Amino acid sequence: MKKFKLMTLGMCMLAVCSCATKQGTGSLLGAGGGALLGGIIGKIAGNTAVGAAIGTAVGTGAGAIIGRHMDKVAAETAAKVQNAKVEEVTDANGLKAVKVTFDSGILFATNKSVLNAKSKGELAKFSTVLKDNNQCYVDIYGHTDATGNDGINIPLSNSRAQSVATYLQSCGVSAAQLQNVSGKGSAEPIADNASAAGRQQNRRVEIYLYASQAMVNAANNGTLN
Questions:
Q1: I want to staple 209 with a disulfide (CB 3.0 to 4.6 A). Which of 39, 54, 136, 161 is the partner?
Q2: Which domain holds residue 162?
Q3: Are 197 and 188 spatial neighbours (Cβ–Cβ below 8 Å)?
Q4: What contacts 24+ positions apart, CB below 8 Å, involve 23-27?
Q5: Number of helices and strands (H, E) in the chain?
């Protein structure tokens, strides 16, 4: 009987912990926990080097508020931009951020950095997300596959990142919102360059949305929605 009671108590504690995890999702997300929103937005993909220099401490409560806000940003992006991969990541400050990846083939012709008409339509939709969430800072990075050398790949990836930034600004996105725009060439592959499919994945433009100091201040003050 005593053993049965202990087993029952353990099961009850497990059930309570399980329920607490579900109810505390917002807080866990703010602290860097994983989430899956629908079938479009990926789970938190790990830490990334992006992130503004934060001059004030970010408490657990503020981190949770920022996490919930970034959930909304990710969901809005996924709803408006059809030809991009949307993921949630953790920035250099341990706060939730949003990563949007465009296949370079969607944006540009081979070895070119001039945006095509279809890509302009997608970026115009994306610009509305940035303007609606102007407390998000934005980084834009161009990437190539390993075909060719750095003398070709770095300027090409830089030009592609700059083309995206310039077009977003033409759609009304503030230049002050765009913090870092650069090309990384083939230095950061996400797939095997030995295969055509892998090289296609490596040819991409990544855009990160992350908390600015203004967003952190709003979260600390409880005014960030």
A1: 136
A2: 37-221
A3: no
A4: 26/64, 26/67, 26/68, 27/60, 27/61, 27/64, 27/67
A5: 8, 6
81 part of a folded domain: yes
**CB-neighbour burial class of residue 137 (10 A; exposed 0-12, middle 13-18, buried 19+):** buried
- Domain membership of residue 12 (yes or no) is no
Q: Is residue 7 part of a domain?
A: no
Strands, DSSP E only, in 120-215? 136-143, 178-183, 204-211
Cα radius of gyration (the chain)? 20
Predicted pLDDT of residue 211 = 95
Coil/strand/helix, residue 222: coil
- Gap between the Cα atoms of 29 and 68, Å rounded: 7
DSSP state of 176: G
Which pLDDT value is given to residue 110? 87
Mean pLDDT of 66-89: 95
- From residue 28, alpha-carbon distances to 32, 41, 66 in Å are 6, 17, 11
- Which is nearest to 127 in space by CA: 110, 144, 140? 140
Tell me whether residue 61 is in a domain: yes
Q: How many domains does the chain have?
A: 1
Q: What six digits make up the tokens of 27?
A: 């807080």
The pTM of this model reads: 0.79
- Of the given ranges (13-22, 28-37, 144-153), which has the lowest mean pLDDT? 28-37
CATH code, domain carrying 69: 3.30.1330.60
